[in-house]
Write a sequence for this structure.
DNA sequence: TATTGTTATACTCTATAACTATA
DNA sequence: TATAGTTATAGAGTATAACAATA
Protein backbone atom coordinates (compact mmCIF):
# COMPACT_ATOMS: atom_id res chain seq x y z
CA UNK A 1 0.00 0.00 0.00
CA UNK A 2 1.09 3.55 -0.83
CA UNK A 3 2.65 5.77 1.79
CA UNK A 4 2.20 8.90 -0.37
CA UNK A 5 -0.11 11.48 1.13
CA UNK A 6 -3.26 12.16 -0.88
CA UNK A 7 -3.12 15.78 -2.07
CA UNK A 8 -6.51 17.52 -1.83
CA UNK A 9 -7.88 18.72 -5.16
CA UNK A 10 -7.04 22.30 -6.10
CA UNK A 11 -9.27 24.49 -8.23
CA UNK A 12 -8.07 25.48 -11.70
CA UNK A 13 -7.66 29.26 -11.69
CA UNK A 14 -6.34 29.92 -15.18
CA UNK A 15 -6.91 27.35 -17.93
CA UNK A 16 -3.65 26.33 -19.60
CA UNK A 17 -4.27 26.03 -23.35
CA UNK A 18 -0.62 26.05 -24.39
CA UNK A 19 -0.62 22.48 -25.68
CA UNK A 20 -3.68 22.94 -27.91
CA UNK A 21 -2.26 26.24 -29.12
CA UNK A 22 0.85 24.41 -30.31
CA UNK A 23 -1.27 22.53 -32.89
CA UNK A 24 -1.84 24.05 -36.34
CA UNK A 25 -5.24 22.36 -36.56
CA UNK A 26 -6.47 24.00 -33.36
CA UNK A 27 -5.29 27.45 -34.43
CA UNK A 28 -6.71 27.08 -37.94
CA UNK A 29 -10.08 25.99 -36.57
CA UNK A 30 -10.27 28.85 -34.07
CA UNK A 31 -9.29 31.46 -36.67
CA UNK A 32 -11.81 30.02 -39.14
CA UNK A 33 -14.61 30.24 -36.56
CA UNK A 34 -13.85 33.91 -35.87
CA UNK A 35 -13.94 34.77 -39.57
CA UNK A 36 -17.08 32.70 -40.22
CA UNK A 37 -18.84 34.43 -37.30
CA UNK A 38 -17.95 37.84 -38.74
CA UNK A 39 -19.12 36.62 -42.14
CA UNK A 40 -22.49 35.47 -40.77
CA UNK A 41 -23.09 38.84 -39.10
CA UNK A 42 -22.04 41.00 -42.06
CA UNK A 43 -23.69 38.89 -44.78
CA UNK A 44 -27.01 38.57 -42.97
CA UNK A 45 -28.24 41.72 -44.76
CA UNK A 46 -27.96 39.81 -48.05
CA UNK A 47 -29.46 36.64 -46.59
CA UNK A 48 -26.31 34.75 -47.52
CA UNK A 49 -24.44 32.11 -45.54
CA UNK A 50 -20.81 31.42 -46.41
CA UNK A 51 -21.82 28.50 -48.63
CA UNK A 52 -24.40 30.61 -50.51
CA UNK A 53 -21.80 33.30 -51.07
CA UNK A 54 -19.29 30.73 -52.34
CA UNK A 55 -21.86 29.23 -54.71
CA UNK A 56 -22.97 32.60 -56.08
CA UNK A 57 -19.40 33.81 -56.41
CA UNK A 58 -18.40 30.73 -58.39
CA UNK A 59 -21.43 31.17 -60.65
CA UNK A 60 -20.53 34.87 -61.10
CA UNK A 61 -16.98 34.06 -62.17
CA UNK A 62 -17.91 30.89 -64.06
CA UNK A 63 -21.19 31.53 -65.89
CA UNK A 64 -22.66 28.23 -67.06
CA UNK A 65 -21.04 26.18 -64.28
CA UNK A 66 -22.97 23.01 -63.41
CA UNK A 67 -24.16 21.78 -60.03
CA UNK A 68 -21.70 18.93 -60.31
CA UNK A 69 -18.80 21.33 -60.79
CA UNK A 70 -19.94 23.37 -57.80
CA UNK A 71 -20.09 20.22 -55.65
CA UNK A 72 -16.60 19.10 -56.67
CA UNK A 73 -15.09 22.54 -56.17
CA UNK A 74 -16.70 23.26 -52.80
CA UNK A 75 -16.80 19.70 -51.39
CA UNK A 76 -20.59 19.69 -51.17
CA UNK A 77 -22.62 16.50 -51.53
CA UNK A 78 -24.98 16.80 -54.53
CA UNK A 79 -28.18 16.22 -52.50
CA UNK A 80 -27.22 19.08 -50.21
CA UNK A 81 -26.80 21.51 -53.09
CA UNK A 82 -30.25 20.92 -54.58
CA UNK A 83 -32.09 22.92 -51.92
CA UNK A 84 -29.60 25.78 -52.06
CA UNK A 85 -29.89 26.09 -55.84
CA UNK A 86 -33.69 26.05 -55.83
CA UNK A 87 -33.78 28.63 -53.06
CA UNK A 88 -31.39 30.95 -54.95
CA UNK A 89 -33.58 30.45 -58.02
CA UNK A 90 -36.74 31.28 -56.06
CA UNK A 91 -35.01 34.47 -54.91
CA UNK A 92 -34.41 35.33 -58.59
CA UNK A 93 -30.65 35.46 -58.05
CA UNK A 94 -29.78 32.68 -60.53
CA UNK A 95 -31.26 30.97 -63.58
CA UNK A 96 -30.77 27.43 -64.88
CA UNK A 97 -30.36 26.98 -68.63
CA UNK A 98 -29.80 23.79 -70.63
CA UNK A 99 -26.13 22.80 -70.81
CA UNK A 100 -24.71 23.22 -74.34
CA UNK A 101 -23.03 19.79 -74.55
CA UNK A 102 -24.72 17.65 -71.90
CA UNK A 103 -28.46 17.07 -71.85
CA UNK A 104 -28.34 15.78 -68.27
CA UNK A 105 -26.81 18.97 -66.86
CA UNK A 106 -27.98 22.54 -66.40
CA UNK A 107 -25.78 25.63 -66.70
CA UNK A 108 -26.11 28.12 -63.86
CA UNK A 109 -26.08 31.89 -64.44
CA UNK A 110 -26.65 34.98 -62.31
CA UNK A 111 -29.73 37.08 -63.07
CA UNK A 112 -29.30 40.86 -63.33
CA UNK A 113 -30.50 41.07 -59.71
CA UNK A 114 -28.01 38.38 -58.74
CA UNK A 115 -25.19 40.30 -60.43
CA UNK A 116 -26.20 43.52 -58.70
CA UNK A 117 -26.35 41.84 -55.30
CA UNK A 118 -23.06 39.99 -55.69
CA UNK A 119 -21.28 43.17 -56.73
CA UNK A 120 -22.23 44.64 -53.36
CA UNK A 121 -21.74 41.38 -51.45
CA UNK A 122 -18.17 41.00 -52.71
CA UNK A 123 -17.39 44.53 -51.54
CA UNK A 124 -18.79 43.63 -48.11
CA UNK A 125 -16.76 40.42 -48.11
CA UNK A 126 -13.59 42.37 -48.87
CA UNK A 127 -14.30 44.85 -46.06
CA UNK A 128 -14.94 41.91 -43.76
CA UNK A 129 -11.62 40.37 -44.76
CA UNK A 130 -9.86 43.61 -43.92
CA UNK A 131 -11.55 43.76 -40.51
CA UNK A 132 -10.83 40.11 -39.66
CA UNK A 133 -7.16 40.50 -40.55
CA UNK A 134 -6.80 44.02 -39.14
CA UNK A 135 -3.86 42.99 -36.97
CA UNK A 136 -1.99 41.63 -40.02
CA UNK A 137 0.06 43.74 -42.40
CA UNK A 138 -0.64 43.30 -46.12
CA UNK A 139 2.56 41.25 -46.39
CA UNK A 140 1.54 39.05 -43.45
CA UNK A 141 -1.88 38.54 -45.01
CA UNK A 142 -0.27 37.35 -48.25
CA UNK A 143 2.09 35.08 -46.31
CA UNK A 144 -0.82 33.60 -44.34
CA UNK A 145 -2.72 32.68 -47.49
CA UNK A 146 0.36 31.16 -49.12
CA UNK A 147 1.00 29.00 -46.06
CA UNK A 148 -2.66 27.92 -45.82
CA UNK A 149 -2.65 26.95 -49.51
CA UNK A 150 0.44 24.80 -48.88
CA UNK A 151 -1.71 22.75 -46.52
CA UNK A 152 -4.85 22.21 -48.57
CA UNK A 153 -3.73 22.30 -52.21
CA UNK B 1 -35.19 46.28 -78.69
CA UNK B 2 -31.59 45.07 -78.57
CA UNK B 3 -29.59 44.55 -81.72
CA UNK B 4 -26.88 42.58 -79.84
CA UNK B 5 -26.61 38.98 -80.97
CA UNK B 6 -27.37 36.41 -78.27
CA UNK B 7 -24.19 34.45 -77.59
CA UNK B 8 -24.87 30.72 -77.15
CA UNK B 9 -23.90 29.36 -73.74
CA UNK B 10 -20.42 27.89 -73.49
CA UNK B 11 -19.50 25.05 -71.14
CA UNK B 12 -17.17 25.80 -68.22
CA UNK B 13 -14.02 23.74 -68.79
CA UNK B 14 -11.86 24.78 -65.85
CA UNK B 15 -13.50 26.28 -62.76
CA UNK B 16 -11.95 29.64 -61.84
CA UNK B 17 -11.61 29.80 -58.03
CA UNK B 18 -9.18 32.73 -57.97
CA UNK B 19 -11.62 35.11 -56.30
CA UNK B 20 -12.49 32.75 -53.45
CA UNK B 21 -8.81 31.92 -53.04
CA UNK B 22 -8.10 35.61 -52.45
CA UNK B 23 -10.15 35.46 -49.22
CA UNK B 24 -8.44 34.48 -45.96
CA UNK B 25 -11.67 32.95 -44.69
CA UNK B 26 -11.94 30.58 -47.64
CA UNK B 27 -8.32 29.47 -47.33
CA UNK B 28 -8.55 29.04 -43.57
CA UNK B 29 -11.71 26.95 -43.90
CA UNK B 30 -10.24 24.69 -46.60
CA UNK B 31 -7.00 24.14 -44.67
CA UNK B 32 -8.96 23.39 -41.50
CA UNK B 33 -11.08 20.80 -43.29
CA UNK B 34 -7.97 19.01 -44.59
CA UNK B 35 -6.43 18.84 -41.12
CA UNK B 36 -9.71 17.81 -39.46
CA UNK B 37 -10.13 15.01 -42.03
CA UNK B 38 -6.63 13.74 -41.28
CA UNK B 39 -7.41 14.01 -37.57
CA UNK B 40 -10.61 11.97 -37.89
CA UNK B 41 -8.76 9.20 -39.74
CA UNK B 42 -5.76 9.02 -37.42
CA UNK B 43 -7.67 9.41 -34.17
CA UNK B 44 -10.33 6.83 -35.01
CA UNK B 45 -8.18 4.13 -33.35
CA UNK B 46 -8.67 5.97 -30.05
CA UNK B 47 -12.35 6.60 -30.70
CA UNK B 48 -11.71 10.34 -30.36
CA UNK B 49 -13.13 13.18 -32.42
CA UNK B 50 -11.34 16.52 -32.41
CA UNK B 51 -13.62 17.84 -29.68
CA UNK B 52 -13.05 14.75 -27.48
CA UNK B 53 -9.31 15.13 -27.92
CA UNK B 54 -9.50 18.83 -27.02
CA UNK B 55 -11.57 18.10 -23.90
CA UNK B 56 -9.29 15.29 -22.72
CA UNK B 57 -6.18 17.31 -23.46
CA UNK B 58 -7.47 20.26 -21.41
CA UNK B 59 -8.35 17.92 -18.54
CA UNK B 60 -4.87 16.35 -18.79
CA UNK B 61 -3.12 19.71 -18.57
CA UNK B 62 -5.64 21.23 -16.13
CA UNK B 63 -6.62 18.52 -13.63
CA UNK B 64 -9.72 19.58 -11.73
CA UNK B 65 -11.04 21.78 -14.55
CA UNK B 66 -14.84 22.19 -14.52
CA UNK B 67 -17.34 21.64 -17.30
CA UNK B 68 -18.02 25.34 -17.31
CA UNK B 69 -14.34 26.14 -17.87
CA UNK B 70 -14.19 23.61 -20.72
CA UNK B 71 -17.23 25.20 -22.34
CA UNK B 72 -15.80 28.71 -22.12
CA UNK B 73 -12.38 27.67 -23.39
CA UNK B 74 -13.62 25.57 -26.32
CA UNK B 75 -16.77 27.54 -27.21
CA UNK B 76 -19.05 24.60 -26.45
CA UNK B 77 -22.61 25.10 -25.21
CA UNK B 78 -23.01 23.45 -21.77
CA UNK B 79 -25.87 21.12 -22.84
CA UNK B 80 -23.68 19.78 -25.64
CA UNK B 81 -20.83 18.93 -23.27
CA UNK B 82 -22.94 16.83 -20.89
CA UNK B 83 -23.13 13.85 -23.25
CA UNK B 84 -19.43 13.98 -24.10
CA UNK B 85 -18.43 14.02 -20.43
CA UNK B 86 -20.70 11.12 -19.48
CA UNK B 87 -19.43 9.11 -22.44
CA UNK B 88 -15.79 9.73 -21.50
CA UNK B 89 -16.68 8.72 -17.95
CA UNK B 90 -18.41 5.52 -19.14
CA UNK B 91 -15.21 4.71 -21.06
CA UNK B 92 -13.28 5.11 -17.78
CA UNK B 93 -11.10 7.83 -19.25
CA UNK B 94 -12.12 10.53 -16.76
CA UNK B 95 -13.54 10.84 -13.24
CA UNK B 96 -15.64 13.58 -11.70
CA UNK B 97 -14.79 14.63 -8.15
CA UNK B 98 -16.42 17.31 -5.98
CA UNK B 99 -14.98 20.76 -6.59
CA UNK B 100 -12.95 22.02 -3.59
CA UNK B 101 -14.56 25.49 -3.43
CA UNK B 102 -17.85 25.21 -5.30
CA UNK B 103 -20.50 22.70 -4.34
CA UNK B 104 -22.31 23.16 -7.64
CA UNK B 105 -19.33 22.16 -9.76
CA UNK B 106 -17.39 18.96 -10.35
CA UNK B 107 -13.65 18.78 -10.99
CA UNK B 108 -12.64 16.61 -13.92
CA UNK B 109 -9.58 14.36 -13.84
CA UNK B 110 -8.06 11.72 -16.11
CA UNK B 111 -8.06 8.13 -14.87
CA UNK B 112 -4.83 6.11 -15.18
CA UNK B 113 -6.28 4.63 -18.39
CA UNK B 114 -7.12 8.12 -19.61
CA UNK B 115 -3.58 9.30 -18.93
CA UNK B 116 -2.12 6.27 -20.72
CA UNK B 117 -4.34 6.80 -23.75
CA UNK B 118 -3.76 10.55 -23.97
CA UNK B 119 0.00 10.05 -23.79
CA UNK B 120 -0.25 7.99 -26.98
CA UNK B 121 -2.94 10.18 -28.54
CA UNK B 122 -0.83 13.31 -28.18
CA UNK B 123 2.06 11.55 -29.92
CA UNK B 124 -0.31 10.62 -32.76
CA UNK B 125 -1.58 14.21 -32.89
CA UNK B 126 1.96 15.51 -33.20
CA UNK B 127 2.75 13.06 -36.01
CA UNK B 128 -0.46 14.13 -37.70
CA UNK B 129 0.57 17.78 -37.40
CA UNK B 130 3.88 17.00 -39.06
CA UNK B 131 2.13 15.19 -41.92
CA UNK B 132 -0.47 17.91 -42.45
CA UNK B 133 2.20 20.59 -42.57
CA UNK B 134 4.76 18.51 -44.46
CA UNK B 135 5.15 21.17 -47.15
CA UNK B 136 5.95 23.83 -44.53
CA UNK B 137 9.38 24.39 -43.03
CA UNK B 138 9.56 24.58 -39.23
CA UNK B 139 9.93 28.36 -39.53
CA UNK B 140 6.89 28.58 -41.83
CA UNK B 141 4.89 26.45 -39.39
CA UNK B 142 5.74 28.83 -36.55
CA UNK B 143 4.86 31.83 -38.72
CA UNK B 144 1.54 30.28 -39.71
CA UNK B 145 0.50 29.77 -36.09
CA UNK B 146 1.54 33.29 -35.12
CA UNK B 147 -0.53 34.77 -37.94
CA UNK B 148 -3.56 32.59 -37.12
CA UNK B 149 -3.37 33.65 -33.45
CA UNK B 150 -3.37 37.30 -34.59
CA UNK B 151 -6.82 36.62 -36.06
CA UNK B 152 -8.56 34.80 -33.24
CA UNK B 153 -6.93 36.05 -30.04
C1' DT C 1 -30.10 37.26 -7.91
C1' DA C 2 -26.53 34.70 -10.49
C1' DT C 3 -24.18 30.45 -11.77
C1' DT C 4 -23.22 25.12 -12.51
C1' DG C 5 -24.89 21.35 -14.38
C1' DT C 6 -28.69 19.11 -16.50
C1' DT C 7 -32.95 17.65 -19.50
C1' DA C 8 -35.63 18.21 -23.38
C1' DT C 9 -35.90 19.84 -27.77
C1' DA C 10 -35.30 22.05 -32.19
C1' DC C 11 -32.70 23.49 -35.94
C1' DT C 12 -28.84 23.23 -39.10
C1' DC C 13 -25.33 20.70 -41.43
C1' DT C 14 -23.69 16.73 -43.61
C1' DA C 15 -23.88 11.99 -45.46
C1' DT C 16 -26.00 7.76 -47.80
C1' DA C 17 -29.21 5.00 -50.65
C1' DA C 18 -31.92 4.84 -54.46
C1' DC C 19 -34.24 6.68 -58.42
C1' DT C 20 -34.64 9.18 -63.60
C1' DA C 21 -32.84 10.71 -67.51
C1' DT C 22 -29.03 11.11 -70.44
C1' DA C 23 -24.02 9.99 -72.00
C1' DT D 1 -22.05 1.03 -67.65
C1' DA D 2 -21.29 5.63 -65.86
C1' DT D 3 -22.75 10.32 -64.74
C1' DA D 4 -25.99 14.68 -63.57
C1' DG D 5 -29.51 15.81 -60.94
C1' DT D 6 -33.01 14.61 -57.66
C1' DT D 7 -35.80 12.62 -53.53
C1' DA D 8 -36.10 10.80 -49.12
C1' DT D 9 -33.96 10.09 -45.01
C1' DA D 10 -30.69 9.50 -41.29
C1' DG D 11 -27.07 11.08 -38.47
C1' DA D 12 -24.01 14.55 -36.45
C1' DG D 13 -23.39 19.09 -34.81
C1' DT D 14 -25.11 23.18 -32.60
C1' DA D 15 -28.43 26.22 -30.25
C1' DT D 16 -32.21 27.75 -26.88
C1' DA D 17 -35.49 27.33 -22.92
C1' DA D 18 -36.28 25.81 -18.54
C1' DC D 19 -35.22 23.50 -14.27
C1' DA D 20 -32.73 22.00 -9.52
C1' DA D 21 -28.99 22.81 -6.52
C1' DT D 22 -25.73 25.95 -4.82
C1' DA D 23 -23.25 30.59 -4.58
Amino acid sequence: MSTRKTTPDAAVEQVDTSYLESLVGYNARRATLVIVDAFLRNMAVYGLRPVDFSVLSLIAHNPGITSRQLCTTLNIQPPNLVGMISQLQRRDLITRRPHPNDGRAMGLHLTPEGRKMMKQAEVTASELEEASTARLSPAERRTLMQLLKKIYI
